[in-house]
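The methods section describes the discrete structure representation at length, but only in general terms. The central task, working out the structure tokens from the amino acid sequence alone, is never made concrete. Nothing conveys this as quickly as seeing an actual entry. For illustration, here is how one protein appears when written out as sequence plus structure tokens:
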Amino acid sequence: MQRRHFLSLIPASTLLASDAGPRLRPALCAYSFRTDLQSKKMSYEEVIRYAAEHKLDGVDLTVYWFPSTEDKFLYGLKQLAYKLGVEIYSISIRTDMCKKPGPEADKELGELRKWVDVAAKLGAGHIRVFGGKVPKDSNDAEAAGWVVQVLSKAGEYAGTKGVMLGLENHGGITDKAETIVDIVKRVNSPWVGINLDTGNFKTKIYPQIETIAPHAINVQVKVEITEDGKKGISDWDRVAKILVANKYRGYLALEYEAAESASTAIPGHLEHLRKVCAKFSS
């Protein structure tokens, strides 16, 4: 039997575990330049150029300040990124899926589908989504069920476009690692996973990161963390070790939110990020 035919009989997951070593890829979230993007001092084209200048593999384009979703704008970004050798691998959107079945949930699903189409046009294989806040007249269990319903339908549509949805640990219904893992397991879709944000847990940070790491399909790293009210520096080496132990292969995107000016602080953090990615990649 030829080796090529033999390999075709082995499940992809088995090949990944046995043949592929760890690989972490440095990237940048456009949200890091939120002030300049919002004021229009910086364009999304400039974010892509910045990523190329700093030798990054990819960009996660937070869509909050997109001037348009027309093809001319989207394909212009896609062309620029291709020419500069930077992948628009993800977009980040606002969602609130804690909606009981009905018009509001339907509207949320419609918005998700719209952004799936945008991601597909950009060539992005991933969208960062939020679970949302638990309504005052509801509870965690009920709201989690609503998220499962919306996310399941969104995942079905995303799969038809080849786009994955990463549910972020972002407070609200996704405040605890066990809740977000439970939601993703109940959705049970190959197109839905977890967008791990290393700065969003406020207690037992690294144990909670370990809990969701096996389900992570994208990772955003913060410079700072706040644990039990005490601010500190995020240990990217520790995060990388957890990811590699869980066979994560993918992007580590800097999402800068610290007090120092982004223009002066980000270059040094990106240099550190590139070193961490190289250190923990084979």
Notes: Residues 53 and 84 are 9 Å apart (CA to CA).
